[in-house]
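User: I'm new to structure prediction. If I give you an amino acid sequence, what do you actually give back? Let's try with this one:
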Amino acid sequence: MKKKVTFSIIGAVVVLGISGYYYISNGKNDEIQYRIEKVTRGDMQVVVTATGTLSAVTTVQVGSQVSGTLANINVDFNDKVTKGQIVAQIDPTFLEASVRDAEASLQRATAQFNEAKRNFERAKTLLEKNLASQAEYDAALTQYESNNAARKQTEAQLERAKINLRYATIKSPIDGVVISRAVDVGQTVAASLSAPTLFTIANDLTKMQVQTSVDEADIGKVKKDQTVTFTVDAYPEQTFHGTVRQVRLSPKVEQNVVNYTVIIDVPNDDMKLMPGMTATVTILVTKQEAVLKVPTLALRFNPPEDQIETQQDSSQRQSGDDSARTERRRGMRERFAQGGGNFDPQVFQQRMASRGIGRVWVMNDRKKLEPIMVRTGLSDGTFTEIVRGKVEEGQEIVVGTLNQRSMSTQTTSPFNSQQRNPGGMPRRF
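Assistant: Good question. You get back a string of structure tokens that encode the predicted 3D arrangement of the chain. For your 429 residues, that looks like this:
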């Protein structure tokens, strides 16, 4: 009998101990620790970031319109050239022969034209004296006109042959620097459907540009003459400056992403920047100095329902104001409810944010959270400007929680398998 009593007492103690540990642990889990930040004052700027490639403002690819073997190359990489300077020479042997052949054809055509001209004049004289028929005169006229056209055709062929001979001497079309050479002496150049590229000449490397692609979500913020800063991997500690010159309307679709090309003018007086470098670009959209700002997370924070200062908690202090506030909240819930359903605080918060209206939470003396409505301005993603509202520099606001309350709460004994998930009412604004 004594053993049964002893075992009963031990079992009761174990049950009470486990139940007490459970309830204590559950109570600790329900305690929410908030992450607190202070309202600060500082500069706020909105930027658009992108990557691009450096290039010369004017780059010309020098090619050849005639085929042949390269006899001479007069320039090399990085050589400075002037407009009209001879940079290469194609062997002119076949081209000179073509000129001589065209000259001979012109002489033959000229002789035939002169003969036809004499016959025509003779037939005309005989016709006037009624010594030749009209048919003979017409035949002489036709031969004369045909030979005249053939003579003009051979003149054009001669001119074409001379032009091709001139094209054998390749000259620089602009003043600049040779940044690429694709041929060597003795190489055969075949100009059939398109002119092969022999050299690439950049006009002036002291003035360069960055071609960058900006996403369609940000292109609306980019305007002409905006200030740009960028870095390159060759000089990671140096920041270069530029200005937006052009926003091109033509879209580029890559992997279902629409981008637009933005051209940025860049000075390069020290010649550190080289064509082809990759630039990490930051385009300054707008900037405000010494503004009141809060972390953007504070505007997105939605506290638990039971942590909000309710009307019952503050009835003794704000009995008159609470009734009016309750009516306003009820009206807002009815206005912003979707399809006649329950009020969704997240949808409401998104709509108000699109109108420049936000809400931050502060903790009162009773460890309850109270909302403060604010008018927002610029945002860089991390901080948001406060244009108007009852917040001050240095004031502490809640931006989030340090621990996560469990979604389900046990309300019965741990030995009972039944649990209750209360769900929850919509959070109050």
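You can read the tokens as a compact description of the fold. Here is one thing that stands out. The domain at 47-57+202-287 is CATH 2.40.30.170 (Elongation Factor Tu (Ef-tu); domain 3).
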